[in-house]
Amino acid sequence: MRSSFQHQPVLLNECLELLALKPGALVLDGTVGGGGHAAAILERTAPDGKLLGLDRDPAALAAAAQTLARFDSRAELIHASYRDIARILTERKLSHVDGVLLDLGVSSHQIDMPQRGFRFSETSKQEIPLDMRMDPQASFSAADLLAHASLQELQECFQNYGELPGSRRLATAIVEARRHTPIRTTRDLLEIIHTARIGGGRKHNPATLVFQALRIAVNDELRTLEQGIEAILDALGPEGRVAIIAYHSLEDRIVKNHFRNAAKGCVCPPQFPVCHCGKKPRLRLVTRKAVTPTESEIAGNPRARSARLRVAEKLAEVA
Fold first, then answer.
1. Mean of the pLDDT values across residues 89-112?
2. Which residues make beta-bridge pairs with 291?
3. C-alpha span between 274 and 290 (Å, rounded)
4. What is 292-319 written as a DSSP string?
5. What are phi and psi of 306, to 5 degrees?
6. How distant is the alpha carbon of residue 129 from its chain centre?
7. For residues 214 and 207, what is the distance between their CA atoms, to the nearest angstrom?
8. Residue 4 above 70 pLDDT?
9. Residue 55 forms beta bridges with which residues?
10. 55 with 32: CB under 8 angstroms?
11. 216: pLDDT confidence band, cut at 50, 70 and 90?
């Protein structure tokens, strides 16, 4: 039976070329999803290359298992977050990996499954739960956040993760609404957004930013990315490369800054004539600017429109 978890890999050729993979390489796909990128990586590293595929979503791992079945033992799938790379390598008695790929954000399959609660519809009559957990086994959902977060925490969530105008007004409206009725469905939240008059006159539906903010908070996505990049830099072997695809400015900014700082090394103030921090560069930037999809790719896969790919290589002398 074919899995319903469909996900067209974004910037696939660019990832393969910029990762500079060789036969026999050990690659970690930290967001394996349906296995599209992973399958291409295993083909590129044939005949004896291996892949560790991580994902927080068991449905993604089940789909990837079908996609990668033809590679037999060359692929190992693991229910874990990519920020746990150190533990995963230690458990397998591995010293390092030769390459890492992260394809951030939520997958098309997750968005298209109403029960996962990642999307909203102004016209749907479905009672879609406010879930948004990438790992359905996690205990904290979007409904839980809306029920228990303080007014200040809600405001910071919408302001920091959604860059939403009117964050304070929306947070206040949520706190007032939950005093009378639990906020359990996407329709409940949409009504509050409209009542609070958030995003009036804006071209795009403000609920998009609200849902983005909640999803990031529920899954701790930005802190996971920050910790994950550090773990990746430690896990990469000499001249190993890391490729990260981001889909919004908050993620891309984190990747850009971490790569830039690791490539720079010294963090002493400019007025210091001699370096006192002792930090040496750890990376070489393979891409000076983010790589974006072609018009033809966007036409065939609209999800790719906002994708930004950055690649860096670990310097051999610090590996």
1. 88
2. 309
3. 32
4. ---HHHHHH-GGGGG-EEEEEEE-GGG-
5. -95, 5
6. 22
7. 10
8. no
9. 79
10. yes
11. very high
pLDDT computed for residue 178 by the predictor: 97
pLDDT score of 317 more than 90? no
- Go through the domains of the chain in sequence order and give each one's CATH number: 12-109+221-318 (3.40.50.150), 139-218 (1.10.150.170)
115-173 pLDDT, tens digit each: 676 766 655 556 889 999 999 989 899 999 999 999 999 999 999 999 999 999 999 99
**Which of 316, 307, 257 shows the shortest CA–CA distance to 7?**
307
- The amino acid sitting at 84 is D
Report the alpha-carbon angle 214-215-216, nearest 5. Answer: 90
Q: Residue 249 is encoded by which pair of tokens? A: 């400015």
**3-state DSSP helix/strand/coil % of the chain, to nearest 5:** 45, 15, 40
Polymer length of the chain: 319
Q: How far apart are the two ends of the chain, measured CA to CA in Å? A: 44
Q: Distance of CA 105 to CAs 20, 73, 172, 222, 284, Å? A: 24, 28, 28, 10, 25
Instruction: Give the model confidence (pLDDT) of 5-56 as tens digits.
Output: 556 899 999 999 999 999 999 999 999 999 999 999 999 999 999 999 999 9
Distances (CA, A) of 222 to 65, 153, 212, 246: 27, 16, 12, 11
